C-alpha cells in the first residue's frame, strides 16, 4: 500500500463564513484519522454538538483523541466540559489549561494523522482563529490555514506539520495543564464569571433548554401524580417528542439529587447523558456498564446498561435507596428479567418509565411494573397535529417478487438467511429502484434485513449511478460519517441494518425506504420515527414501504390508521376513509389493498392442532369447537400484530376491545397456558412447568376468588422476595406487601380500612392484619397452594432449582393479569 502513496504537500486558506466553513473539513478529517489532537481556547456546547458524533465514532474505531481547552476569560461552557467527560470515559485524553492571569491562552489548532499498520500515511492540520462554537465552525468570519503532507515526509509543509505537532505536545504537557475531571468542573462553575462572554464570542451565553408545550403538560402530570402519592409512573411519548429531555426536566423538577438512567443500548445512554448534562450541568455523571463501573460516590447521575446492572452481582452493590429518581428508557423492554431485577431491587422516591409505544395493549404488562399508573400519553398523531413532528406521505408498494409463504417463520420472525436470499435479486432491486426514483426526495435512509442485503442494495444503486453506501456494525463507513455525507448530499441513499432503530436523531432524513418486514409495531414506529424530526429543508417525510403476502405486514396499516385491529385497518384502506394526522397522505398499490383484505379473512380450515392436555378438571366434551377456533384466531391476530407471543394481560385487553370476556379462554381451553400449548407457544421449560404445576399452582392463581386485591398483592410480594428460592417470613411478606400497596395510592385508599391506614409497614398491627387476610386465606386449607411453617410462607409444591425462574415468570404473568382484571372494575369505561 505504501508504494501507491504519492507525495502531497500544500497550504490552503479556509476563509470561513457560509461559503467556506471549517466544519465539513473537520468532520471529514475526523472520520479518516487515526490520531486526533485538538487545542482551542474555549469550547461552547453549540460547537461540540457538531463534532461530538464524529469524535465518538473515532473513539469507537480505536482512534487516539487528545483535547486541550482552557478557562481563559471563563468562556468555555461548563456543560461542554461535562460532555467532554463522556469522551474521557471512552479513553480520550481531555485536559484543561488553567489560566493564572499572567498569560493568555488563545490558540486554535486541529491536527489529524492517518496511519496504516502504525506507519504514517498523511497528516492534516488546521491552525487559525476557530474555537469550537457553532458560529466559528459554520458561519463566522474565521481564517484557518490548512497544512497537509503525505509520506515520504520531506517537504517544507511536512516540516511545518511536524512543528505544529511538536508545539501541541509541548503545550499539552504545560505545568498549568491539568487532567479534566468533575471536581475541577465543579470548582470552575463556582468561580466562573459570564459578564464578558458576549464581547469575546459572537454567540450568546449558553441558556438552558426549555420544555415544549407537550413536555410542559407531561411535567405537570408527573408532578400531580407524585402529589397523589404515586412512586412510579409510565409516560408514552412518540419518537421525536423528547422523552429523554422530559426525564431530565422532571428529575430537576422533583429535586432529585441522585439519578439512575437505565437503557439497553450504549447509544441511548450516550444521548441521555448529553441531554442531562445540558439540563443539569452542575451534576457529576458517570457510566455503569461492562467497560466502566462508576462508584456510587463518584456520580450524581449514573447511566447504566441494563445488561450489566441487571445482574445480581452488580445491582446488589448499590443500596436499594441510593437513587432518588430512576428512569427506565424504552420501557417496552422492561418485562425482561434484567429490567425486573433492577426494578425489584431499587426503591427510589420515583421511577419513570418511558416508551414510544402508543397502544394500550402494548403497555398491558409493562404498565403493571409502573403500578398501573399511566401518567401521560401523546402518540405520533398528536405530535404531527401539534407540528412537533413532520407529516408523512406513505406509499405501500407491492413486494411482488418475494413469496413470503415460502420463507420460514419461527418464533414470531422470519429466518434472516432465507429473507436475505429472497431479497438479494436484481429483479427486486430494479423494482425498488424504479419506485424510489419516482417517490424519493433528497436524503433517503433505507432499512435492510442483513449486512449482505445492505451491501447488495448499495452496490446495485451505485452501479445505477446513484451515491449509495451501506452502514452497519463493523462496516467500512462509520455511522456518523455516513450520516454526515447524507446530510451534506455526498450520498443520496444510506442502506442500514439495526443502527438507526432507537436513540438517534436524524432530522435531515426526508425519505425512508423500508425494504424488510417489521415484525412488531414498536420496530415499525421506531423506523418511521427516524424521519419524522422537523428540519428546515423538509416539508414532509416520504415513506416507501414494500408490502408482501404475510400477516406481519398488517402491522403497517394498523399503526398508520391508528386502529386496534388488522381487520379495521384493511377496511379503512379499502374504503379510503381512514383518519390520518394533519397533512398526511397514504397510497397503496391496488395489489396491496387486495392482499390486506385477503389476509384479514379467516382461513377456510381453522382446525386447531390436536393436543392432549392433561388437566385435573377436564373441560366438558360438548364445548364448542367453533368457539375454540374463534379464540385461537383472535390470539393469532394479536400475535401477528405485535410480532411476539402476547401476554395474558395483553390478550385480556384485546378481547375487551372486541367485547369478549377473558373468561372464555378458561371456558374453552381450561387455562391461559393451555391455550398457549394448543398454539405451540410454550417453550420447552414452560411446557414442563405446565405439566407439573399448570393445573395446581398456576390454575389456582388464575382462578382464585378475589373480593379484594390482597391475594395478588401478597403473591407480588412473594415473587419480589424470591419466595421460591428463599421462603419469606410472614413479617417480610407483610412489610413488602405494604410498600407495594402504598405505591398505588388509589388502591391503598380503596382497599385498606380507615383503622389500618396509619399502620407502619414494620408494625405488629400491620403484620397481624396481613396475616389474617390474605396470608391465612392462601395457606389455611388443605387445597391452598401455600402453607405456614415456623413463620415462613412456603409453596406446597416443590419447584426444582432449574424451574424456579420459569415458574416465577409464569406466575408473575398471571398475577399481572389478575390485578389488571381487578383494577379494571374501578376504571371509567
What is the CATH superfamily of the largest domain?
P-loop containing nucleotide triphosphate hydrolases
Report the sheet with the most strands, covering strand number, pairing sense and barrel closure: 8 strands, mixed
User: Cα distance, first to last residue?
Assistant: 72 Å
Level-2 CATH architecture of the largest domain:
3-Layer(aba) Sandwich
| Spatial shape | globular
- Arithmetic mean pLDDT: 87
Helix/strand/pairing class, anyone? alpha/beta
Query: Could you tell me the radius of gyration in angstroms?
Result: 30 Å
Portion in helices: 40-55%
CATH domain class of the largest domain: Alpha Beta
In CATH, the topology of the largest domain is named: Rossmann fold
Number of folding domains?
4
Uncertain parts: 1-9, 195-199, 359-364, 605-623
- By DSSP (H or I, 4+ residues per run), the number of helices equals 34
Q: Widest sheet: strand order?
A: 1-7-6-5-2-3-4-8
Strand content: 15-25%
* Number of separate strands: 26
Give your account of this protein's structure.
The protein is built from 34 helices and 26 strands. With 829 residues, it is α/β, with parallel strands linked by helices. It has 4 domains: 199 residues, Endonuclease, Chain A; 166 residues, Rossmann fold (3-Layer(aba) Sandwich); 209 residues, Rossmann fold (3-Layer(aba) Sandwich), CATH 3.40.50; 200 residues, no CATH class. Strands 1-7-6-5-2-3-4-8 form an 8-stranded mixed beta sheet, sandwiched between helices. Strand 13, helix 13 and strand 14 form a beta-alpha-beta unit. The relative contact order is 0.07. The N terminus is likely disordered.
Amino acid at each position: 500500500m505504501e508504494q501507491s502513496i504519492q507525495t502531497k504537500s500544500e497550504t490552503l486558506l479556509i476563509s470561513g463564513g457560509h461559503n467556506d466553513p471549517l466544519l465539513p473539513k473537520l468532520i471529514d478529517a475526523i472520520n479518516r484519522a487515526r490520531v486526533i489532537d485538538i487545542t482551542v481556547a474555549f469550547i461552547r456546547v453549540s460547537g461540540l454538538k457538531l463534532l461530538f458524533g464524529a469524535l465518538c465514532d473515532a473513539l469507537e474505531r480505536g482512534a487516539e483523541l487528545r483535547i486541550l481547552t482552557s478557562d481563559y476569560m471563563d468562556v468555555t461552557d461548563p456543560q461542554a466540559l461535562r460532555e467532554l467527560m463522556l469522551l474521557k470515559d471512552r479513553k480520550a485524553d481531555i485536559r484543561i489549561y488553567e489560566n493564572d492571569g499572567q498569560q493568555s491562552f488563545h490558540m486554535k489548532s486541529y491536527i489529524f494523522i492517518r496511519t496504516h499498520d502504525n506507519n504514517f500515511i498523511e497528516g492534516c492540520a488546521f491552525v487559525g482563529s476557530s474555537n469550537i462554537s457553532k458560529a466559528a465552525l459554520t458561519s463566522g468570519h474565521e481564517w484557518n490555514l490548512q497544512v497537509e503532507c503525505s509520506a515520504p515526509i520531506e517537504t517544507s509543509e511536512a516540516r511545518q506539520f511536524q512543528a505544529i505537532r511538536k508545539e501541541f505536545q509541548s503545550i499539552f504537557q504545560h505545568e498549568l495543564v491539568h487532567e479534566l475531571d468533575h471536581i475541577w468542573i465543579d470548582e470552575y462553575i463556582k468561580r466562573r464569571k459570564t459578564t464578558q462572554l458576549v464581547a469575546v464570542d459572537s454567540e450568546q451565553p449558553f441558556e438552558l433548554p426549555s420544555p415544549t408545550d407537550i413536555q410542559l403538560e407531561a411535567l405537570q402530570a408527573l408532578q400531580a401524580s407524585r402529589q397523589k402519592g404515586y412512586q412510579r409512573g409510565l409516560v408514552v411519548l412518540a419518537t421525536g417528542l423528547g422523552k429523554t429531555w422530559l426525564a431530565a426536566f422532571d428529575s430537576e423538577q422533583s429535586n432529585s439529587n441522585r439519578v439512575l438512567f437505565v437503557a439497553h443500548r450504549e447509544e441511548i445512554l450516550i444521548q441521555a447523558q448529553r441531554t442531562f448534562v445540558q439540563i443539569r450541568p452542575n451534576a457529576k455523571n458517570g457510566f455503569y456498564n461492562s467497560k466502566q463501573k462508576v462508584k456510587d460516590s463518584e456520580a450524581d447521575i449514573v447511566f447504566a446498561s441494563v445488561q450489566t446492572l441487571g445482574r445480581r452481582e452488580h445491582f446488589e452493590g448499590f443500596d436499594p435507596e441510593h437513587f432518588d429518581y430512576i428512569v427506565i428508557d424504552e420501557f417496552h423492554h422492561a418485562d425482561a428479567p434484567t429490567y425486573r431485577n433492577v426494578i425489584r431491587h431499587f426503591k427510589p422516591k420515583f421511577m419513570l418509565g418511558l416508551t414510544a409505544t402508543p397502544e394500550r395493549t402494548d403497555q398491558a404488562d409493562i404498565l403493571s411494573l409502573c403500578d398501573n399508573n399511566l401518567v401521560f400519553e401523546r402518540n405520533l398523531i398528536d405530535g404531527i397535529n401539534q407540528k412537533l413532528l413532520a407529516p408523512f406521505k406513505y406509499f405501500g408498494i407491492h413486494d411482488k417478487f418475494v413469496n413470503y409463504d415460502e420463507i420460514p417463520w419461527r418464533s414470531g420472525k422470519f429466518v434472516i438467511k432465507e429473507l436475505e436470499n429472497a431479497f438479494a435479486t436484481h429483479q427486486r432491486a430494479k423494482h425498488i429502484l424504479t419506485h424510489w426514483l419516482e417517490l424519493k426526495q433528497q436524503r433517503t435512509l433505507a432499512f435492510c434485513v442483513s449486512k449482505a442485503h445492505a451491501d447488495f442494495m448499495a452496490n446495485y444503486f451505485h452501479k445505477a449511478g446513484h451515491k449509495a453506501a451501506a452502514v452497519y456494525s463493523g462496516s467500512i463507513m462509520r455511522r456518523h460519517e455516513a450520516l454526515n455525507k447524507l446530510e451534506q448530499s455526498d450520498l443520496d441513499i444510506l442502506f442500514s441494518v439495526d443502527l438507526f432503530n432507537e436513540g438517534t436523531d436524524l432530522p435531515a432524513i426526508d425519505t425512508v425506504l423500508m425494504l424488510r418486514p417489521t415484525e412488531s409495531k414498536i420496530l415499525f414506529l421506531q423506523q418511521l420515527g427516524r424521519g419524522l424530526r422537523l428540519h428546515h429543508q423538509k416539508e414532509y417525510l416520504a415513506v416507501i414501504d414494500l408490502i408482501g403476502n404475510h400477516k406481519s405486514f398488517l402491522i403497517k396499516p394498523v399503526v398508520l390508521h391508528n386502529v386496534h385491529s388488522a381487520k379495521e385497518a384493511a377496511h379503512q384502506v379499502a374504503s379510503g376513509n381512514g383518519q390520518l394526522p394533519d397533512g398526511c397522505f397514504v397510497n397503496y398499490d391496488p395489489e396491496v389493498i387486495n392482499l390486506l383484505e385477503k389476509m384479514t379473512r379467516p382461513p377456510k380450515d381453522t382446525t386447531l392442532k390436536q393436543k392432549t392436555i392433561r388437566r385435573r378438571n377436564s373441560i366438558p366434551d360438548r364445548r364448542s369447537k367453533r368457539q375454540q377456533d374463534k379464540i385461537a384466531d383472535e390470539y393469532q391476530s394479536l400475535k401477528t400484530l405485535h410480532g411476539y407471543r402476547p401476554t395474558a394481560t395483553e390478550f385480556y385487553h384485546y378481547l375487551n376491545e372486541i367485547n369478549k370476556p377473558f373468561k372464555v379462554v378458561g371456558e374453552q381451553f381450561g387455562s391461559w397456558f393451555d391455550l398457549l400449548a394448543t398454539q405451540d407457544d410454550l417453550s420447552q421449560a414452560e411446557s414442563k412447568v405446565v405439566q407439573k404445576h399448570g393445573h395446581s399452582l398456576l390454575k389456582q392463581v388464575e382462578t382464585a376468588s378475589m373480593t379484594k386485591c390482597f391475594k395478588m398483592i401478597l403473591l407480588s410480594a412473594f415473587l419480589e422476595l424470591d419466595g421460591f428460592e428463599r421462603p419469606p417470613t410472614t413479617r417480610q411478606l407483610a412489610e413488602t406487601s405494604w410498600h407495594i400497596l402504598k405505591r398505588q395510592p388509589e388502591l391503598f385508599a380503596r382497599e385498606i380500612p380507615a383503622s389500618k391506614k396509619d399502620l407502619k409497614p414494620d408494625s405488629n398491627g400491620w403484620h397481624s392484619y396481613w396475616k389474617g387476610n390474605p396470608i391465612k386465606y392462601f395457606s389455611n386449607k388443605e387445597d391452598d397452594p401455600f402453607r405456614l411453617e415456623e413463620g415462613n410462607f412456603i409453596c406446597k409444591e416443590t419447584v426444582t432449582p432449574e424451574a424456579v425462574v420459569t415458574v416465577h415468570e409464569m406466575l408473575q404473568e398471571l398475577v399481572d393479569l389478575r390485578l389488571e382484571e381487578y383494577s379494571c372494575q374501578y376504571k371509567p369505561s
